Amino acid sequence: MAALSREEINSFLDSAEGFADIAKRPVKKVPALRGKTVVNLFFEPSTRTRVSFEIAQKRLSADAVNFTASSSSTKKGETLLDTVKNIEAMAPTVLVIRHGAAGAAHFVAARTSAAVVNAGDGRHEHPTQALLDLFTMRKHKGQIEGLKVAIIGDIANSRVARSNMHALRTMGAEVAICGPGTMLPPHPEAFGVKSCARLSDALDGADVVMALRIQKERQGVATLPSDREYATFYGIGPRSLELTKPDCIVMHPGPINRGVEISSEVVDGPRSVILQQVESGVAVRMAVVYMLAGGDRE
Amino acid sequence: MKTIITGAHIVDPYSGLDGLSDIAIEDGKVAAVGAGLDRAGAEIIDAAGLHLFPGLIDVHVHLREPGQEYKETIATGTRAAAAGGVTAVCAMPNTNPVNDSASVTKYILDKASREGVCRVYPVGAITKGSKGEDLAEIGELAAAGCVAVTDDGHPVSSPLVMRRAMDYARGFGLTVISHCEDLSLAAGGVMNEGEVSTLLGLPAIPSEAEESMVARDIMLASRTGVRLHLAHLSTKGSMELLRGARAAGLNVTGETAPHYFTLTDEEVKTFDAVYKMNPPLRTAADLVAVRSALSAGVVSVIATDHAPHARDEKELEFEAAANGVIGLETSLALSLALYHEGIASLKTIVSALTMGPASALGLPGGTLKVGAPADIALVDLNEKWVVEPINFQSKADNCPFAGMTLKGRAVRTIVGGVTVYSDGKITAQNIEGAK
Predict the structure, then answer these.
(1) What confidence tier does B176 reach under pLDDT thresholds 50, 70, 90?
(2) Which of A54, A258, A270, B71 is the most buried (most CB within 10 A)?
(3) What is the rounded CA–CA span in Å between residue B197 and residue B433?
(4) What domains are defined for chain A?
(5) Helix (H) or strand (E) holding B120
(6) Which pTM value belongs to this model?
(7) pLDDT tens per residue, range A178-223
(8) What is the DSSP letter of B268?
(9) How far does the CA of residue A75 sit from the closest CA of chain B (Å)?
(10) CB spacing of A107 vs B317 below 8 angstroms
């Protein structure tokens, strides 16, 4: 998202509006990418992102093929470069890549003639997640510019946060981030966001609250004393929402740890748009794959 | 056999020479320096328009032999050195096996005498296998020809082991070279921690991982009285610590590498692993501090940390790629850039490439005083050339300066009176016969 302009982001979102209607039809399929091959290269475990991409590709009538491997196994076996060269030899139109290393999609894009979609690279970026988040916000708030967005959680290690910070700032939203000191990025100014130590400062007057998943699988020195303490100081519960604007929406990229970063009352409550995010995901990914495959709807 | 090089502008910071002069070489040694030397029976090398420096000494080179000959060998690494005006290299011990025993040292010296085209000074390990636990047989390493000890690539994490190593090495008159990195704080990072790492989401190493160990080792050197040399310093804070140690009169020297005064972490935005090394490229503020420490003589040594790798070890995701860049064939020109840009005097730059490293490790050479080995670099200070790693003598091409236009190049390299490199070609099979 760092490289996308406001116009480019808008064109993805506008295109996704059109594709969103397809999900409401009895026959959820258009012949837009018939005869085109899309390969989903997933080097990291993923369920929702992979399924979302696959549904998007199938609704576009593209031939979707899945390739699953572990990032670490490529260290022992085939290199990423060799994998890509092999796939390349089969002439795909689009490669969708999810990989545990930051920059993996850049690496691949520089070495293939196929269009490359970054479906998440390490802790770097997750652009389609940010686009679907913006799509959901725009649907509820009309426009992104001027919105106050609070992103709460493990910002430093989150590719979702990174892509959202870039995209929201590009679109003219105000962004406040909050989390324990061990989870805040060392240089928030690089994103032009406000870093808050206290949750109440970040939530004050927010139009959108985005809670991030707390990674339970940790390595090395822990960044948290306990999940319980996290929930106490940074968890989003009904009382947190008293500080926001009354029509504030609550988002989460999933998967959710209920009772840690967000309470069940909020997840299942009226402010939650979490399942709409998932729904938007398919439309946004249809737009991204379609536009990168060289399609032109107009 | 007598050779006289005439008409060159000689810069020898050790002897205070800085001007046009002739130099006579006899029996592989500097026989005379001055005007009107007796030319009877001498071979004359006309060096009008060129600069003449003592041969460059690079105290931080990975020759990769034994064990990793697919990356580089003593033959190719010393050829790269000769092509860069370098007449002596210190070979780091992280070979396979590690140079932690006299037999490995002897192997390196034997190979170097047969296949090397510059002087090779082996550096032994501090601990067995460079595992940071038990002291290597440092006495035997010294007796076999090691000029210093280091666990380069693997910091000595335990302060007690480092203290013992310093006390022990002092007894054999060896310098301890420290790779300063607190691995716990570095936490597996692959680039500098800063704004760029924040944007890229790559695991990052804070400067304090380097600086905290620089501070520790300066304190331990002060207590033990050992000669300490700090390898590849890269941060502003390290410059301050070294400045303090030298002002206090401690027996401490420090080196930096051309990439730290030429490039910053901004380069990592390309995710190209050619910009991956350890310590990592730092910020613009660090680069400025390194340059000013060099020009002030606080950092007295420029060394390349020449770290050749095979292409498939670098053509990987940034996090998975090997650390290190090659530098022997670009070090002189990148250092001279500081002179051309008015950042440091020519004398200071030449000193950091010659006398500085010689004095840090107590090596012969680094000067052109009468009686010194005739190790010489003839340099065209203003020749412009484009860096093309494909044409390097080194086996490797992991060079972050590829494509850059540099100014200044060695046109002839002489080791112990023997011309080993001239006009773009290696001209000797070894330095047998050199003194």
Answers:
(1) very high
(2) B71
(3) 52
(4) 6-125+278-292 (3.40.50.1370), 127-273 (3.40.50.1370)
(5) strand B119-122
(6) 0.93
(7) 999 999 998 999 999 999 999 999 999 999 999 999 976 555 678 8
(8) G
(9) 8
(10) yes
